[in-house]
Amino acid sequence: MHLVATSFKPACKVDALFNRRTDQRLDLRDEPLSCIKPGAIHHSGVVHPAPLWDLQIPPSFGIGFDPMTILPRRFVVASLLFFQAAFFADAVHAVNVDLTTFPATGLPVPNGTVLSDQWRSIGILFAASPAGVDPIKDFGDSLFFNPDQFGNVAIFTFVVPGTTTQAQATRFSLTPFFNPGESAQLVGLDGAGNVVASDEVTPADIGGGDKSITMSISGSFQRVEWRTQGNPGIAADGLEFDLSHGAAAPAMKHSLLALISLCLVALGIIRLQKFA
C-alpha cells in the first residue's frame, strides 16, 4: 500500500459571504486566520465585506441595523446636505471696498487715480456722470470727482467677481462728508433702470456744521447711483456692499459643486433601489 501525503484546507465560512450579498453576521472566532481575506472588514470577530458606504456599526456599539439600506439612506441625506451647502454657499457676501490698495496687486492707489474696473475682482465697477466727469480716489481713502463740480453722480455696477457678468447686490452704503447746504441721494436700480431703493440726506440733516453721515440702502439692485448736490463737490469713504447668492463666487464653482452633489445623490438612490 502506498500512502500519498495530502494537505487539508478547511472550508471558510467567509467564502459564502463573498459569493453573495448578505448582511449575515458570522462568528469567526474558530475560523482559521487564512480565511480572513484582504479587504474584509473585521470588527470583534465579525467580518463584513461590504463597501465603505455600507459598513455596519461594530457590535460593540450595541446598535444593529440592515447595512445594505440604512447607510445608503444616510449617504443620500449627506449628499443632499452637500448639495444645499454648494447651492447656498456665500448666499450673502459682505464686501469692504478699500480704495487705498488695488485688490489684484496689493499695490497702493495714488491720489487722483481714476476708478473704473480695478475692483472687478471683488464685484464692483466705477463710473460717473455727466460726460467728462471721472470718479477718482482722493484724500487718502475717499471717492471724489474730477472735475469737482455741482451735480456729479457716482455710478456703481455690481458684477460676479472677476467677470463683467452683472450681479445683484442686496445692500450698499457709503459715508459722505457734507458741508452746510449740501445734499445727496443714494438710489438702487434694477436691470430695467427702475428705482428699487433710496436714501437721502438734506441740508436740514446736515445743519450748520460739517458732518459725516452714512447713507445706506437695502433691496435687490444691479446698479447704485450716488447723486450729489455739493458746494461744489462731495467726497465719501466707507464703501460697503453685499452681493447676493451666486455672485460671491464664480458661477462655474457653484455649478461644479452642484453637479458633484447631484451625482452623489443619484448614486445613493441607485443603491437604495438595488438593495431594497
List the helices and strands and how they pair.
Layout: H1 13-19, E1 41-43, E2 46-48, H2 70-88, E3 93-96, E4 124-129, E5 134-138, E6 142-146, E7 153-158, E8 169-178, E9 183-189, E10 195-201, H3 203-206, E11 211-212, E12 215-221, E13 223-229, E14 235-243, H4 251-274
Antiparallel strand pairs: 1-2, 3-14, 4-7, 5-6, 7-13, 8-11, 8-12, 8-14, 9-10, 9-13
Helix pairs in contact: 2-4
Structure in words:
The longest helix has 24 residues, at 251-274. The chain has helices at 13-19, 70-88, 203-206, 251-274, and strands at residues 41-43, 46-48, 93-96, 124-129, 134-138, 142-146, 153-158, 169-178, 183-189, 195-201, 211-212, 215-221, 223-229, 235-243. Residues 3-8, 16-23, 38-71 and 247-252 have low confidence and may be disordered. It is elongated and about 95 Å long. Strands 3, 8, 11, 12 and 14 form a five-stranded antiparallel β-sheet that branches. The protein has a five-stranded antiparallel β-sheet with strand order 4-7-13-9-10. A two-stranded antiparallel sheet has the order 1-2. It has four helices and 14 strands. A hairpin with a 2-residue loop joins strand 1 (41-43) and strand 2 (46-48). The chain is an alpha+beta fold and 276 residues long. The chain folds into two domains: 1-49, no CATH class; 93-246, Jelly Rolls (Sandwich), CATH 2.60.120.
CATH architecture assignment name of the largest domain: Sandwich
**Fraction of helical residues:** 10-25%
Q: How many structurally independent domains? A: 2
- Number of helical stretches of at least 4 residues: 4
Task: State the end-to-end distance.
Answer: 59 Å
Rg, alpha carbons? 33 Å
Q: Using the alpha-carbon principal axes, give the shape.
A: elongated
How is the quaternary structure best described? single chain
As for the CATH topology of the largest domain, it is Jelly Rolls
Largest sheet: 5 strands, antiparallel
Structural class given helices, strands, pairing? alpha+beta
What's the pLDDT, averaged over the residues? 76
Indicate the CATH class of the largest domain.
Answer: Mainly Beta
Low-confidence stretches: 3-8, 16-23, 38-71, 247-252
> What fraction of the residues are assigned to beta strands by DSSP?
25-35%
